[in-house]
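Limitations
The structure tokens in this dataset are predictions for the assembled complex, not deposited experimental models. Users should treat interface geometry with appropriate caution, especially where small molecules or nucleic acid strands are included. An illustrative entry is reproduced here so readers can see what is and is not provided.
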Amino acid sequence: MLGRGIIKGLWETGRNFCGSYYDPARLTTVQYPEAKLAPWENARTVPFLVYDGKDAIAGLRCTACTICEQECPAHCIEIVKDTAKRADYLGKMQLQPKVFDIDAMVCMSCGICAEVCPFDSIKMDQVFDLAGGSRSMMLTLKELAKSNEYFRLIHPTEAAVVDAARAEEQRKAQAKKAAASPALPNAPATSPVSAAPARAATPAVA
Amino acid sequence: MNALDQIFVAAGRWMTGLAPAPLQPLVAMALAIAGLMAVFGTCFAVTTIFERKILGRMQNRLGPNRVGPFGLLQPMADGVKMLTKEDIVPFSADRVVHFLAPLALTVPVWLAFAVLPFGRNMSAIDLNAGILFFFAIGSASELAVFMAGWSSQNKYALLGAMRAIAQMISYEVPLVLATIPVLMAAGSLSLTDIVLAQSGTVMGVVPRWNVLTPWGLAGFALFMIAAAAESNRCPFDLPEGESELIAGFLTEYSGFKYALFFLGEYLGLFAVTALAVTLFLGGWQAPLPALEWFPSWGWFAVKFSALIFLFIWVRATLPRLRLDQLLSFAWKFLVPLALVNLFVAVGWWQSSAWHFPAALELRWLLGAGLLAVPYVWLGQALKSGKPVQHHYSYAE
Amino acid sequence: MNPLLTHYLVVSALLFSIGFAGAVARRSAIIVLIGIELMLNAANLNFIAFWRYGAHSEALTGVLFVLFSIAIAAAEAAVGLALVIAIYRQRKTTQVDGLDRLKG
Amino acid sequence: MLNEIAFYLIAAVTLGFAVAAMALRQLIHCALCAAAAFAGLAMLYLQLDADFVGFAQLLVYVGAIAILIVFAVLLTRNDEILPGSRRSSPSWLMGIAAALLVLSGIALPILNSPSLRHAPTATAAAPVKLIGVELMTHYVLPLEMVGILLTAALLGAVVIAMREEPETKTQSRPPAARRVETSEVVSQP
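Predicted assembly:
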């Protein structure tokens, strides 16, 4: 009969109306600035640079290889190599960036830089309230460098894989080193990642 | 009780008395106008916020809650936004008509409030052709809609205006036909008389409201459906169907003029709702004599709010109709049913002389049956209708 | 002081002449129809004015005549405009001086 | 005094709109001005204490006839774009002269007859109830005739304005391509 659907619909909306008052679980709204939904683990916005240890500049994984700069389809990364070198977590001497800028206005969050990085240095961030007062959103090294703990926090699965791989490489390198010159004292910091995450990856050059 | 009931009347009289004698009629008029504008202006603001909150709740959302406590100051924020926006007039628009259209819509709607009795002795003017005045004034809004749509020089605006006019003209017929039994029952076109004709109770418990008779109930339903269509409410809001027509005849309006249209639409809804209360729900009358301690304008407000809530509820529930569905619903369903209702109403009065036991029940049964059969039948016909053959005569 | 009967009659005469001038001088059939409506309205105004100022206002003759006249005007407008539209479809014009052939 | 001011105001506005309705170039403007003139006349009726007629005038002229005119203008709108088309007929001067002649023929006798210069009689009123009674007693035959006339006009207007059958055939989509649409008004049963 005509109108049965209307009655059913009215019943449904009426139930929602009353229900939303006594059952807060019905309300789907998250009131944004006060409450935030945790982002999905694979969510990505702009890139950032991972560093190990306490000091952002000293612990930077980046070796200024400029692969990301070349691969970036939007050309939003600019790297200037430093002349000085420093040892990385394996004890190898590597270059380091003097300038590392990402124009977040130009970045399109494709994640290619993170894909191609051979040093697991550049990763995708999850900050999303990036609105600012100016048209320029040039992120410099200071803003880009974020600790490994932060990386673990936002991408736990990926971070665990990366950390395990790095610990394994470090172990191998040390074994090699030990085999080559057993007289020398061990380099510090070889504890596995999972055991003590906060103090795990102390820089090799410390 | 009486003092509270007549407080507005007394206040008006007192304030009129303060003016010098020759100016008193003018002052009384101005007071009535100011009172109506203040009350329904506020009502407009309050309705917009509560509508959004209720719609939100019905969709399991919170609704606006940012401005002020519980978001209650939202209308003020909206108003400030509306009034400070740039007033854009399209380059090729007909400037004069474009400017006049919102006024032509809003002014008649305000006028329509003049004849409505909002409480005991509380109507601005008591015309003896009050309801005719109401419908005559209401018909002016069609022209305003056309002016808006045509002067914008925008095809969406024009299409929206054409749809709006087709809809308003079609639904005016069932609206008026649903009203006629009430006028016959009261024997008057004056809204005050119509309210008074619904006073008293049947057997001491059931108020003698029109809605509590078979023809009144059917008439009320027809009236509310037609009223929703007249005031472009969901599910009949396709003149401004944003998914197909951007915003219909409102497309080229912004800022203050848009606000005026918005105001006009809500005021039209209020006016027709107030008319529904007056015609079918006993106006300002309390349901039972025992409840008359509550002031009459309070009863009116209660009924009025309930009907506005009903409109919002329906809006939250039903999807928009297609244009051909809309028109066939008016002409093939509402109009025949309203005509049947007229006959049922006449039969109801003719049978009022019956005095055998269970006469009232029999009358009810007969009336309801006489309405239910065409309802079911027309409903079936409407659903199983032939597929509509679209041909667009003037779109070559 | 109320306006005199003369005032209303003069207004009515002016309205009639305006409608007449439009109906005679304009080429568009729709304007001609509007002009005829104005002339009808002028006559209605006369009826009401004479009813109001006449000696037997309780008879309501003027009022009822105007009501019938309004109803007939509505019918006239509906049929007239339908004719205009039909003619437009045939001849692609609504200019009255273009409609000088009987053959369709 | 107030009455007189109101009368002059309404009369001036009504006549102004009437002139505009006859003289403007855009047909839509003419139609809208005509609607305004009709509304002004309704006000004159109200001033003459004929409430019912005034409201009926508003309802029929502004609500129906003006809309009808506007629709007719829109349905024939290619017409006015013709280049070089004149809005007045070739003999418009003669027309105006004839109108002036008519005006003088009506207005001069009115102005010259002293018997018309009188104020209204005591309050006259046309209560709705009385109009209804009159319509149902003395004027029942005209009322029925008007009903028949309106029905006939309705049917006639539909028939005249209806498009001829062959044309619709050629313009509608072929039946095979037509989707089967149910004209269901409300939601599922």
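Some entries come with short summary sentences. For this one: The radius of gyration of chain A is 24 Å.
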